[in-house]
Amino acid sequence: MVAPKKAAAAKKSAAKKTPASTASAKGSSGAKKRSTPKKAAALRVRSDEAPWTSAELEAVNAELLEQRDHLQAELAGIESDIQQLMSDSGEGSGDDDVDTGAKTSERQQELTVALNSRAMLEQNERALQAIEEGTYGVCESCGKPIGKLRLQAQPRATLCVTCKQEQERH
Predict the structure, then answer these.
(1) 160 near 144, Cβ under 8 Å?
(2) What's domain 40-169's superfamily in CATH?
(3) Residue 32 per-residue DSSP state
(4) Where do runs of H (alpha helix) occur along the chain?
(5) Which of the two residues, 30 and 90, has the higher pLDDT score?
(6) What digits encode the pLDDT tens for the residues 48-74?
(7) Domain extents in the chain
(8) Which residue has better confidence, 102 or 53?
(9) Hey, how many other C-beta atoms are within 10 angstroms of the C-beta on 118?
(10) Structure pTM?
(11) Cα–Cα distance between 116 and 75 in angstroms, integer?
């Protein structure tokens, strides 16, 4: 009789840790659904900034979700284009060297765009996860707050301005 009570308590505890609103759930479109955290003011900010408001964080969250959806659609189109380019590789179709070179160049360009889009999508996912976990806005290099204004302009930012400038110098 004691074991079923412990099992029920464990299920309740697990349900509290991973509520349906924050768990990654894929719909038919493949988009993950996420909720905005309730503790916007708990996020770290610079000393010269006011704490995050729920409205500010919801706006950033909405922008990240919109960008994610756009990037997923873009990637689907690019992958379709790459599939088409790969199937039309020119083997046996009578293409000369110039045609073959042009097709190869186009494939390379599409692959580069796809890699860039995937990297931005991963950054969006990391930012969305950080919002959920309450760690959004902390520089990955120095651990200091990135700054609300920077994050509102560039929601995927993972470095404060100083660390980003240092990274770009190298």
Answers:
(1) yes
(2) DksA, coiled-coil domain (1.20.120.910)
(3) B
(4) 2-17, 54-87, 97-133, 148-153, 161-169
(5) 90
(6) 999 999 999 999 999 999 999 999 999
(7) 40-169
(8) 53
(9) 13
(10) 0.66
(11) 10
